[in-house]
Amino acid sequence: MHTQLFPGIDWVGFVDWNIRDFHSYNTERGATYNAYLIRDEKIALIDTVKKAAADTLLKNVSELVDLDKVDYLICNHAEQDHAGAMAQVVAQMPNVQVICSPRCKDILSGYTDTSSWNFRIVANGETISLGENTLTFIHTPMVHWPDSMFTYVGEKKLLFSMDGFGQHIASSERFDDEIPLDLLLEEARIYYANIVYPYGAMVQKVLAAAADLPIEMIAPSHGLIWRKNIPAIIEAYSRWAAKTAEKKVVIFYDTMWESTEILAKAIYEGVLSVPGVSCTMTHVRKSTLTEISTAAMDAKCCALGSATLNGLPTPTIGAVMTYLQGLRFPIQNALAFGSFGWGKNAVDEISAWFTKMEWTPIAEPIKCKWRPTQEIIAQCEEAGRQLALKALED
Ligand code: FEO
């Protein structure tokens, strides 16, 4: 199976219809691992796929060209969703030279025995002519790993952007104008929140470098290829990379016997009493880390609450804290709340975590013993109102 981007340039990747857990990212719409074949005087394969899909990739390529005719295998990124199949692919392509960044070679060699591979390490800006098409390699460290690079084909104004501008969507369509744009941008946003967000500064550098390039097609390694809505995805990446916090409060909580849920709802009511602030309220055991992080990506304020289980926050709240700690969203103000019965309580743990995150508490932590009293509910409503007022501040 293949799809033509230009005459002589085809998508030859793998559509992963059934994946739902991509290293903890909930891929509700599945995923693709995009690989591309350029047939010119020289023949180049741009990236591979995950190990389990190696046979599909090799079949797709061999439908277009004999495997021993492939001259170059460009590895833009060594993460195993793209490079897991490389050992099988290199073994089937006896004349192939592997093209990659210096860090990429190190990582590939950490995953597999590359001692027999014919490597060519390329510097930032280095080019290789295939005949009519010239490949220019652009190092993009930390978008997504230290080894990452883009490959640009100037003659076609075509950018192979690796993880950048990707989305996790399994589809029979290959191009952005073949599915609804709002769905595509929402999946690109989920992808950005969960994969790219911590590297916003590097994304800004890449966008600045790409601004000098004429680009009429962006072919990422996941999801749909951008050929119509390039301004929309570039604008979205510019906005997300700026790490701007919106007038938004997110409430995340876990509850055992509804006490913490009552507190969460009272905080929500307090937020809603202030016009102009958006708010989401999420029972974390009825959601996913992927949804939670996507909600938190552009929030200015967060209320985090937990019932107390064995003297600690619930395991799910613990997972939320770990995940948000790594993603480093621009939340500035926070409120800890929750219920307990005796001894230690979850709220103190959440407050200590706020200190680590450098989130400023907007009020004293709200600790509810057994069932919330009317006094505590009123305290929650007022704290919600204070969170909303903080969200409105410039
Ligand atoms: Fe899709 Fe960073 O790999």
Could you characterize the architecture of this molecule?
By secondary structure, the protein is α/β, with parallel strands linked by helices. 34% of the residues lie in helices and 25% in strands. It has helices at 54-62, 80-83, 86-92, 102-111, 181-196, 200-210, 230-241, 259-272, 289-296, 315-327, 346-357, 374-392; strands at residues 3-6, 9-11, 14-16, 21-22, 25-26, 31-33, 36-39, 43-46, 72-74, 97-100, 119-121, 127-129, 134-139, 149-153, 158-162, 217-220, 246-254, 278-283, 299-309, 312-313, 333-340, 360-361, 366-369. Helix 4 links the parallel strand 10 (97-100) and strand 11 (119-121). Helix 1 (54-62) runs parallel beside helix 3 (86-92) and helix 9 packs across helix 10 (315-327). The termini are far apart. The model has no long low-confidence stretch (mean pLDDT 97). The structure holds MU-OXO-diiron. The site of MU-OXO-diiron has 9 residues, from helix 2.
Can you describe this structure in just a few lines?
By secondary structure, the chain is an alpha/beta fold. The chain has helices at residues 54-62, 80-83, 86-92, 102-111, 181-196, 200-210, 230-241, 259-272, 289-296, 315-327, 346-357, 374-392; strands at 3-6, 9-11, 14-16, 21-22, 25-26, 31-33, 36-39, 43-46, 72-74, 97-100, 119-121, 127-129, 134-139, 149-153, 158-162, 217-220, 246-254, 278-283, 299-309, 312-313, 333-340, 360-361, 366-369.
